[in-house]
Amino acid sequence: MIDVVLxxxxxxxxxxxxxxxxxxPVDLPVEKGEQTPETNPSLVIDITREGAYIVDARPLAFDRxxxxxxxxxxxxxxxxxxxxLIRPDKNATASALNRLADELARLGVRRWSxxxxxxxxxx
Length: 123
Known about the structure:
Elements: H1 2-21, E1 43-47, E2 53-55, E3 58-60, H2 62-75, E4 84-88, H3 94-107, E5 112-114
Parallel strand pairs: 1-4, 4-5
Antiparallel strand pairs: 1-2, 2-3
């Protein structure tokens, strides 16, 4: 029984490290907001200063990002089950975010939020 518990602990420590590794360094805007999201996001989309999109630490063209979102919609049985976290760089153009927001609305994805940081916290 102890072996099983230790293996579970090692498994969760290992997988939680992957969650941290796949985060792209983005200089988030400073803004008050919720401290914790309502649920864990199905997908995290980063928008860089240059307006490029990054999903799972991989830069993707906009049409590929939309294909990934569509795959998530199919996996969750519809857009209602998809929860997105969008992490735009504070110096990114609004057009990159607006383009993504328009496409999410077209797909029916309504549960998405913007990541921000509070004054004094890291990006």
